[in-house]
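Sample entry was shown:

___
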Amino acid sequence: MSGFIDADTHVLETDASWDYLDPTERDLRPKTIEFQDEVHSGYEQMRAFGGRSKQMWIIDDNVSRRHPGDGRASGFGKEYQAEAMFLTDPSVRLRDMDELGVDKQIVISTFFIGAELERPITEAALTRSWNRWMADRVADSGGRLNWLVVPGTRTMERALQEIEFGRANGAVGVMLKGVEHGMYLNDPYFYPLYAKAQELDMTIGVHLGFAWRRADVRDISNLLPTPPAYVDNLAALMKGFYAVLASDLHTRFPRLRWVFLEGGSTWVQMIFQQHQRLISTSKPGSFVNSGNRTSVTIDPLDTAELMAEKKMYVACEVDEEIARIASITGRSQLIFGTDYGHNDVGCDPTGLELVTKREDLDADLAQAIVRDNALAAFALH
């Protein structure tokens, strides 16, 4: 087996991420605020979700978590070197990849997972700066650090320009959340973006995340206000998946690939089960398991064929029932990401190796998950 393909890794933003702002837009530069390190209510229950963010970015009147120092928000998980997480010295990250047996990584923003940028000019300016910063960070990686370009979707013309820039500078995909600015991913508003991604042979990377105006909804120094709030992030990913599954995007953009990252894959069965009920009961007068009406038969779907037809890939997690899930998604549609760079609920730095050691997985399936499927999903060579 050749080296692993890590389909979901992260970079942590620094002040340098905004050094590429256009001179006319430098007043939009995010500011930093910092909190004292006292123990607050709910601290212990939130340790499993990354603990406390001691610094925050201030963008206009919104906030987003910032990782200071070495980036550790809590005291568990692999302790990454700062040079690797912030990409101040990409060679440190490459050496870490060698140690982990990783051939290539897909590198994804941390800042844009949860930041809700309401002003179009702010979103366009910050995404432009981030993309140029990222392109410089990975330029000398020899093709090992691949990345997802971030489009400012509030201004589609500039978003398309950023996608073109990203492709010309090593990006292999486009980062989106499952719900973008209140719009589902099957909204025709996004068609120009999908057309551009297809034209440039880029993948749409839908990452776990729920953008909210954090100052309005939570204790500002917590990563999440309460554990159930994590479900908002997962729900957005599921909505993105279903927007693609239940739409005709695959006929409009037949060469476009989709990956769904950092939410595990167990929920995929539930989506398919509900989708089968929906399409079986869509006609007037049809009911399922009704006590006083005639029930309809739920016609089973060939879910694996559907996933392949729509070019949909899902990242699984090492503690899931992978063999069973593969029977639903198809063996060619599961990939794996370690969440390298983060210390939180999605992180499993040695997960790729652990997949290959699972005795319940045959060698061909393990190889597909940790390498072959990701090569196809991101059109890597």
User: Anything to note?
Assistant: Residues 120-138 form the longest helix (19 residues). The radius of gyration is 21 Å.
